[in-house]
Amino acid sequence: MIAPRLEMLGIRKRFGATVALDGVDLLVQPGEVHALVGENGAGKSTLMKVLSGAVRPDAGRMLLDGRPFAPRNPYDARAAGVAIVYQELNLAPHLTVAENLTLGIERHTVGIICGRAFRQRVERALATLTGTSDCVERGDGAEKARIDPDTVVRRLPPAARQLVEIARALLIEAPILVLDEPTSSLGVAEIEHLFAVIGRLRAAGVSIVYISHFLEEVQRVADAFTVLRDGRVAGAGRMQDTTLSRLVELTIGRRLDEMFPRVPHTIGQPLLRIERLCGRPLPVEANLTLHRGEILGVAGLIGAGRTELLRTIFALAPIRSGAVRVLRLSRAKHRDAMALRPDPASRLAQGVGLLSEDRQTEGVALSRTVAENVTLSYLAPLSRWGWVRPAVLRRTAQRWIERLGIRTRGPEQPVWGLSGGNQQKVALARLLHHDVDALLLDEPTRGIDVASKTHIYELLGQLAAQGKAILMVSSYMPELLGVCDRIAVMHRGRLGPARPVADWTEHALMTAAVSGTETAA
After folding, report:
1. Same domain, yes or no, for 145 and 271?
2. 3-class DSSP state of 229
3. Is residue 356 included in any domain, yes or no?
4. DSSP character for 475?
């Protein structure tokens, strides 16, 4: 019998009164894709931090190819052949893509770094992930998103940064690769390329620990699974021997009756109108009317201009031409509330709020507490004579913690100590606390577990029933089809017409996203 590539046995870890891991076992075979599944806060990230040497376990032991493995720090783990791509990326934004990929493994001569030593390997790793190498080999002229190794990382969109992080792990050719939510910022095309890369790595004998909340893709890519719940192993086995409903049940500890709960809501008067909107450089052109009580989805490939559309509406990106009009109901007639100075503060004052896909940079203030993050954009109801009342602030934050199911030690916990999915909930709670009328949501369920997603979907339905207007960008097509009233597809910066959700299928959405041509459902 072949010995496991990785054995984590009886791993325990406590943070104060919180038991993060309580006797967890994880066995991964050579050339196996092993899915690690669980809700936010179940212990997945802590277990991988133990593997990486970033966290020292209180008890338990690890074996790597049958030999004791106890890394003192991430450098030890990496030297032993463990490469980890975390959900929240660890790139140096001021360095180029190539510099990030080779950081820590540079070759040098008498102290002088040889910048060209890894150039071909860097370009090959990037081409492998983006699919440009396949395009060149086939000679089919297919359009692929190339990442320039000389581009400074801070200029890349989140999806491209995710690919750079994965490419860095591929570059060191580690026998164990951990991918933490690798597809959370990727579009359909990039996901397909990533799965092809995973297949080649598996065939080469690389062991992959695959962490994801997208259980459908877990079923597709993984050979085996381990489910964590509340720091313990809730179940494990071969993927071919289980079902999606069983994985969901093990993950949340109960049956999930409906993934996309529908809350009855009535579409009302127009609230937000976009007229021939052009940005710099995207969108190229967008026309759209968003109504009260409506959930309108925007589909499209990464790079099509979906994020740029929301940022231009919110005045985070410049408007080249066209207009964004915010309409409010004043007694029986509309009043045009278009800001004279379009900027984010004016948009918020008009009742328009944005949930950014770039959680760490724009979504939350990591060093501040949960309470501060939830309330920082709207302190007026918490203040008296210009002074914020701390007790009121904490009570307000606690209400949102309970309503959104945020796993935290309390309102005073710093946000950096939360899992990525719970950070996302904090960012969403801030919009809800601000009580905006129009919510611009860019990948709102990124990094959120299946039960929390269902909770968020139900919440969006409740907001629509209250007359809120929701414009939602998502790369997860079942989410758009299950939640939205209408869907529009963006292709090369141009926004197509919004059609009722009944007119769309996944195939039709994908066809429109790739070619710009709409097909009948």
Report:
1. no
2. strand
3. no
4. S
Q: Which of 351, 331, 332 is nearest to 290 (CA)?
A: 351
The structure tokens listed for 363 are 């979504």
Q: What is the pLDDT of residues 148-194, one digit of tens each?
A: 999 999 988 777 888 888 888 888 888 999 999 888 878 777 788 78
Q: Is residue 357 part of a domain?
A: no
| Residue 247 within a domain | yes
Structurally, the chain folds into a number of domains equal to: 4
Determine the structural domain holding residue 72 and report its residue range. 1-81+174-255
Give the phi and the psi of residue 420 in degrees, each rounded to 5.
Answer: -60, -40
Cα dist from 447 to 32, 70, 87, 105, 108, whole Å: 23, 29, 8, 30, 39
- List for the chain the helix, strand, coil content (%; round to 5): 35, 25, 35
Going by the DSSP 8-state scheme, the letter that residue 282 receives in this structure is: S
CA torsion 194→198→199→204, rounded to 10°? 140
β-pairing, 438-442 with 352-355? Answer: parallel
Peptide bond into 283 cis (omega under 30): yes
Q: Which residue has the tokens 């990326």?
A: 89
**Over the stretch 268-294, which tens digit does the pLDDT of each residue have?**
999 999 999 999 999 999 999 999 999
**Per this entry, what is the length of the chain?**
521
Pair (273, 405) in one structural domain: no
Q: Are residues 117 and 245 in the same domain?
A: no
Q: Which of 486, 490, 508 is CA-nearest to residue 499?
A: 486
